[in-house]
Each structure stands twice: as structure tokens, then as C-alpha cells.
Amino acid sequence: MATSIRSAAAPSILLCIAVQILLFASNSSAVGNMLMAGETLLAGNCLSVGNYHLTMQHNCNLELYHGNKLTWESHTTGMGTKCFLYLQVNGELVIVSEGSTSPFIWMTGTGGSLHRFILVLQPDGNAVVYGSAVWSTGTMRAVHGNVASNRTTKSIP
């Protein structure tokens, strides 16, 4: 027989549990094909969807693969140590190096006001920062399967 908590402490306990869950989630790493604002993608980890993988390499290069084929990269190989990808709360996607005098070794240049942003690796192979789309790898595939573009794009508000 199940029992329920019927005391004045029950709402407080539930509130504490909810706060702990929110605090844990806000410092978490990326899972699946999305990176929320405030989350990190550590070296050796990737966002994946279908046959696409956006990987933060140990050499500090961010790379997007379709299968085994490299379709886009940040060109930051060897520019730092202990690097990780971080989506700031202003929508700026940055690669941070613990071994660099500069705060970021790469950035999208798209930071703006504080909103709810998310980096999504889409099923078409395009990695996009959404709030309103502020940055993408430009690697989405056309309906017939050809790569439409292989350049970094930046939208203008």
C-alpha cells in the first residue's frame, strides 16, 4: 500500500527537488543533437543526428561530418588546449581553450541580447543556433542530396 506525504513539509521538499534538477540541468553537457545555452560540448564528444556528427576534437577543432566525410570545420586545430564548445546565453557559439590567453579561440560573431538559444544539428546536416537563427554551418542538403553550401553564414537582424 502506497502512502503519501501529507505534511506542511511536502511542498518544500518538492520545491527543493525541482531546484536541484534545474541547477543540475543548467550545467550539463550536450545530449543528442542539441546544445542549450549555458551547456558545453567537451573534447571527444559530439552532437549526432542520423549520419551527421558535430564533434569537438581534442586538437581544439570543431568538425562536422557526414558519415566519414568532413563537411565543415572551425579551422582551430592546435590553437589551444583542453578546448570545449560553449553556447553562451546571448547566442554566441564559442570554442574556449583553458590554455589560451584569449578567452575564445573561435566564435560565431552572432552574440546579441539574452534570449533562449539552442544549437541544433538538424537532420539535413546543418548546424544552426536558434533563438531566431543567428548562425549556421551552411551545410544543409538540398532535396536531391547535394550540399547546397559549405560556408559559414551569418544572419543580419
Order of helices and strands: HEEEEEEEEEEEEE
Query: Could you give a short account of the major beta sheet?
Result: 5 strands, antiparallel
Q: Give the integer mean of the pLDDT values.
A: 77
As for the CATH topology, it is Agglutinin, subunit A
CATH architecture: Orthogonal Prism
Strand order across the largest sheet = 1-10-11-12-13
**Backbone CA Rg:** 19 Å
Give the helix/strand class: mainly beta
Which outline best applies? globular
Query: Could you tell me the strand content as a percent range?
Result: 25-35%
The total of helices stands at 1
Low-confidence stretches: 1-27, 143-157
Helix proportion range: 10-25%
Instruction: Measure the end-to-end span.
Output: 59 Å
Q: What is the count of structural domains?
A: 1
Q: Got a strand count?
A: 13
Query: Which homologous superfamily in CATH is the superfamily?
Result: Bulb-type lectin domain
In CATH's first tier, which class applies?
Answer: Mainly Beta
How would you describe this structure to a colleague?
By secondary structure, the protein is mainly β. The chain has one domain: Bulb-type lectin domain (Agglutinin, subunit A), CATH 2.90.10. Helix content is 11%, strand content 31%. The chain contains one helix and 13 strands, in the order αβββββββββββββ. It has one helix spanning 9-26, and strands at residues 34-36, 40-42, 46-49, 52-56, 62-66, 69-73, 83-87, 93-97, 106-107, 118-121, 127-130, 135-136, 153-154. The strands form three sheets. The protein has a five-stranded antiparallel sheet, with no helix packed on it. It is globular and about 35 Å long. It starts with 8 loop residues before the first helix and ends with a strand. Keywords: Signal.
